[in-house]
Design a protein that fits this description.
Blueprint (H helix, E strand, L loop, with lengths): L9 H11 L3 H10 L4 H19 L6 E9 L4 E9 L2 H4 L2 H17 L11 H17 L4 H19 L5 E2 L2 E5 H12 L4 E9 L6 E4 L1 H9 L1
Antiparallel strand pairs: 1-2, 2-5, 3-4, 5-6
Helix pairs in contact: 1-2, 1-3, 2-3, 3-8, 5-8, 6-7
Length: 220
């Protein structure tokens, strides 16, 4: 039986629509491709959403909104700038929910950078030196050390880079993936420009901006 011949209950299509936010037609196609398996269909939609986001990634995001999140009785605060392509999308409920979700996530996880590309050369060199020394100290052969360092760096990026972190409300998705899902739904590119996180009594407050944004501001 072909994928298009698979009969899908309308309730399943509606359920997937509510779960993913994708159009009904896309939900039906995903369920047909997954032969009615809800979880597999959701994976199909996620993959398509990432592909859609990749196509839109080069489009400029000069609109957007600044949002805040205050946590722990006013002890932790986050200020976040999230960009999109139009003021219309910036005012939608979906965009504002995404803004709040990401700000809340930052309050909880305290990332130091927006993207992997924003990690400073000094931080990269320091972390690699530490992981390399640790691997050598355990007696690992030199030919295996760099592979170990590479694996450790992947974990490092996940710990300190916002877009690489698992979303606190849904650990199976990274922040990058939840943004991609909104891009697919809203039809516009969306990007995190910068954020700041403050904690009462902590002198090590965090301010992070993308390297590209910092370069643009330096030229202005």
């Amino acid at each position: 039986m072909s994928e298009t011949a698979v009969k899908i209950d309308a309730k399943l299509v509606k359920e997937l629509r509510e779960k993913s936010g994708a159009p009904m037609g896309d939900c039906l196609k995903a369920l047909q491709e997954a032969k009615g398996d809800m979880e597999e269909a959701f994976v199909v939609l996620r993959k398509r959403g990432m592909a859609s986001a990749a196509k839109k990634a080069s489009r400029s995001t000069n609109e957007g909104s600044v949002g805040t999140y205050i946590h722990a009785g006013g002890k932790i605060g986050v200020l976040l700038e999230l960009n999109c392509e139009s003021d219309f999308v910036a005012r939608t409920t979906d965009f504002q929910e995404l803004l709040r979700d990401i700000a809340m996530h930052i309050a909880a996880t305290d990332p130091r950078y927006v993207r992997k590309e924003d990690v400073t050369e000094a931080d990269l060199a320091r972390e690699k030196d530490i992981y390399r020394a640790q691997a050598l100290a355990t007696g690992k052969k030199p030919e295996f050390v760099e592979k170990i360092v590479e694996g450790k760096m992947s974990k490092f990026y996940e710990e300190v880079c916002l877009l690489e972190q698992p979303f606190i409300k849904e650990q199976t998705h990274t922040i990058s993936q939840i943004i991609a899902a909104k891009i697919a739904k809203l039809g516009e590119n969306i990007s995190v420009r910068r954020f700041a996180r403050f904690k009462v009594g902590d002198p090590n407050w965090t301010v992070a901006t993308t390297a590209q944004s910092a370069a643009e501001e330096a030229q202005a």
